[in-house]
Specification:
27% of the residues lie in helices and 31% in strands. It is an alpha+beta fold. It folds into two domains: 117 residues, Hotdog Thioesterase (Thiol Ester Dehydrase, Chain A, Roll), CATH 3.10.129.10; 48 residues. It has a five-stranded antiparallel β-sheet with strand order 1-3-4-5-2, covered by helices on one side. The two termini are 45 Å apart.
């Protein structure tokens, strides 16, 4: 998996009559933007192994109407790749259209597809995962907690050994464990 300029992903969708929102069986423009989001998500998965986030659209142009009974082909093509952002060019075109003049369920495959919506979008992906710190670096935390609680070096070391520490684990220290290690009572100013 790698983000490369030129990667292209295409989806096809039948526009149902339930999707029609206006007279004349017209479908609102947000329907196509939703399809752009779907195809952009697949492009992001193919490039980065992550769904990413469609952060913005720019230059959205509604060029022709989308109607119930259409079959729409939506394509996302990668035009630029940054460290965490990918620029995509979106295009939606009608490849089949209902033909009610021939019958209720008649449709026609168009000789020339009709471009209905174009846009540019930016997808961002999360930063790469950080490499894990060595366990020994994390295991020093209880030692410093005991030191901040006012324990001397030897008292902190005894506490450390009572907690069952080893070089590979980070023990959990409770308030009672710290107070009982010195036998002096409560910890002043400690936030537990």
């Amino acid at each position: 998996m790698s983000a490369e300029v030129g990667l292209s992903v295409t989806h096809r969708r039948y526009v149902t009559y339930a999707d029609a929102h206006y007279g004349g069986n017209l479908v609102n423009g947000a329907y196509v933007l939703d399809l752009f989001g779907d195809v952009g998500t697949e492009a992001s998965i193919r490039m980065d192994g992550d769904e990413g986030l469609l952060a913005s659209y720019s230059d959205v142009q509604f060029r022709a109407p989308v109607r119930a009974g259409d079959v729409i082909e939506v394509t996302a093509t990668v035009t630029a790749v940054g460290r965490r952002s990918r620029e995509l060019r979106f295009e939606a075109q009608v490849v089949c259209r209902a033909d009610p003049a021939r019958g209720d369920s008649a449709a026609t495959v168009l000789a020339e597809p009709i471009i209905v919506v174009t846009a540019t979008g930016t997808v961002v992906v999360p930063p790469p995962p950080r490499t894990a710190r060595p366990t020994a670096a994390r295991s020093s935390r209880p030692w410093s907690m005991a030191r901040r609680a006012g324990r001397s070096g030897s008292a902190a070391l005894r506490l450390w050994s009572r907690c069952g520490s080893s070089a590979t684990t980070s023990p959990t220290i409770s308030k009672s464990a710290v107070t009982s290690a010195s036998g002096r009572g409560t910890i002043s100013g400690g936030a537990w």
